[in-house]
Amino acid sequence: MALDGIVIANVVKELQDALLGGRINKIAQPEKDELILTIKAQAREQYKLLLSAGAGLPLIYLTQNTKPSPLTAPNFCMLLRKHLNNARILDISQPGLERIVNIKLEHLDELGDVKVKFLIIELMGKHSNIIFCNEDMTIIDSIKRVNQFISSVREVLPGREYFIPETTQKADPLTIDFDAFQSTIVSKPQPIGKALYTSLTGISPLIANEICHRASLDSEDSMNTLNEATAIHLYRNLERLMEEVKTHAFVPNIISLDGSPVEFSSVMLTCYDGHEIQRFDSVSAMLETYYASKSSVARIRQKSADLRKIVANAIDRAAKKYDLQLKQLKDTDKRDKFKVYGELITTYGYELQPGAKELKTVNYYTNEEITIPLDPTITPMENAKHYFEKYNKLKRTYDALTTLIKETADELSHLESIKTSLDIATEEHDLTQLKQELMDYGYIKRKYSNRSHKPDKKNNQKKTGSKSQPFHYISSDGYHMYVGKNNFQNDELTFQFADGGDWWFHAKKLPGSHVIVKAGGDELPDRTFEEAAKLAAYYSGARDADKVEIDYTLKKNIKKPGGGKPGFVVYYTNYSMISDTDITGITQIE
């Protein structure tokens, strides 16, 4: 996570400029570890300050968004309302380059006396907290209480003295001189990057890597390989970066690859050459933009975890069943041999003596000599009958297994398509459709329903399609392109939405989305064909591959086989092309 001391310094500067002298007129606690303070600034502007002590997503930034609060406010929220309602913000500071923000507040107590309090936001991963203290730094309470059984380093409980835990002896990068740098950091027998971020307060692995890159060093090289000149060069790059922090020369930016955010920082990251860079005027806007994307993906991932587990287990069972069926099918390969044995014994068995253990004769199918084992306790004709019975049994097994293997292969293909749909789901409505599909095919039990488990695809599409909509893109040449998010949408796009003259795209022999290009009777330009193929490649099970083979044809050539599962189609006339999965630059319409 890149919410390091430098980003915190940028946030503190922004909060100082906007909130100093302002008054808190509303406090809400929408989540158990999150606060939203509504602050009326001196310029009569109103700001919302989000404070989150979430272990996985600690945050602090200004926002315009609101969240619903519980009907009954939590105790910590009520405590803050009691003390800090209409409190004035005296100061906002950061100790050194720690991931800590101190908000100094002034308010009137019950007797009308002026009192000073501190609201301390610690943004330290799983140790994140929001702590409310008296002027003498005695803890009044915290959003997360920490007792001796949780931490042996520091208790965070009412009545305890607040202090910053010094569990590691780190130097302040804002004040460190070269002698200290050389004695405490350069002397470490560690990779350069690790030595930097483990020795300096507020320096993340990302920033450590950036310092190394600016110094033209590999962050994985060992510190003890540096000579004095190179160590000085490394220190000077650290010094120049810290000068940017001291002078508040912040440049909030997000680094993206293929349209997906990779990292963010408040300094320019030269180590991400070739990536897209989006700059922001406000660090709050940067954080909100970055985490809106990341939290949306994380939220969908979390909500789809149960469905993923169900699909993974079903795929595992189906794959084991498929392997067993293939093995059983291989065992039927000798069925024709038993048929030939029976025929040859019937033809030449009259020559055998009673009690013969084998028949040596010429196989009239191959003109080769063959030896057929016999049971000496039964007659030749009974031996022939025995071989014919074995042949018929294996033939019945072969016929049954051939059908079962196709059904299992179709089931695996269906489950893989659902797995791919889970990977591209972006909204809770998408998960609703996927859950419905799993219920229709018996992977999830229905609740409170006595209806048949036979899937009613038409009704399901009508029921769920109105909420979750396909992705909608427009090509560089102005043609509308639609991408199904799941099998129900694939069927709806192909067989209800598309006209016969529209173009259909799909990754060859892979689970993935149907892509429909509305041609409107036109002959599509090559660039639109290429962009539609990119969408089909990106929204397929081979998203991470460099190249994907794409089949495309007119929609009129696509057929739905009888009894086919959702999203399953057949076609016998098509073109193919090789495409990459880079959809950067293709315009998506919300």
Automatic annotation (TrEMBL):
<feature type="domain" description="NFACT RNA-binding">
    <location>
        <begin position="471"/>
        <end position="563"/>
    </location>
</feature>
<comment type="subunit">
    <text>Associates with stalled 50S ribosomal subunits. Binds to RqcP.</text>
</comment>
<feature type="region of interest" description="Disordered">
    <location>
        <begin position="450"/>
        <end position="470"/>
    </location>
</feature>
<keyword id="KW-0694">RNA-binding</keyword>
<dbReference type="GO" id="GO:0000049">
    <property type="term" value="F:tRNA binding"/>
</dbReference>
<keyword id="KW-0648">Protein biosynthesis</keyword>
<dbReference type="InterPro" id="IPR008532">
    <property type="entry name" value="NFACT_RNA-bd"/>
</dbReference>
<dbReference type="Pfam" id="PF05833">
    <property type="entry name" value="NFACT_N"/>
</dbReference>
<protein>
    <recommendedName>
        <fullName>Rqc2 homolog RqcH</fullName>
    </recommendedName>
</protein>
<dbReference type="GO" id="GO:0019843">
    <property type="term" value="F:rRNA binding"/>
</dbReference>
<dbReference type="GO" id="GO:0043023">
    <property type="term" value="F:ribosomal large subunit binding"/>
</dbReference>
<comment type="similarity">
    <text>Belongs to the NEMF family.</text>
</comment>
<comment type="function">
    <text>Key component of the ribosome quality control system (RQC), a ribosome-associated complex that mediates the extraction of incompletely synthesized nascent chains from stalled ribosomes and their subsequent degradation. RqcH recruits Ala-charged tRNA, and with RqcP directs the elongation of stalled nascent chains on 50S ribosomal subunits, leading to non-templated C-terminal alanine extensions (Ala tail). The Ala tail promotes nascent chain degradation. May add between 1 and at least 8 Ala residues. Binds to stalled 50S ribosomal subunits.</text>
</comment>
<dbReference type="Pfam" id="PF05670">
    <property type="entry name" value="NFACT-R_1"/>
</dbReference>
<feature type="compositionally biased region" description="Basic residues">
    <location>
        <begin position="450"/>
        <end position="465"/>
    </location>
</feature>
<dbReference type="InterPro" id="IPR051608">
    <property type="entry name" value="RQC_Subunit_NEMF"/>
</dbReference>
<dbReference type="InterPro" id="IPR010979">
    <property type="entry name" value="Ribosomal_uS13-like_H2TH"/>
</dbReference>
<dbReference type="GO" id="GO:1990112">
    <property type="term" value="C:RQC complex"/>
</dbReference>
<keyword id="KW-0820">tRNA-binding</keyword>
<dbReference type="InterPro" id="IPR043682">
    <property type="entry name" value="RqcH_bacterial"/>
</dbReference>
<dbReference type="GO" id="GO:0072344">
    <property type="term" value="P:rescue of stalled ribosome"/>
</dbReference>
<keyword id="KW-0699">rRNA-binding</keyword>
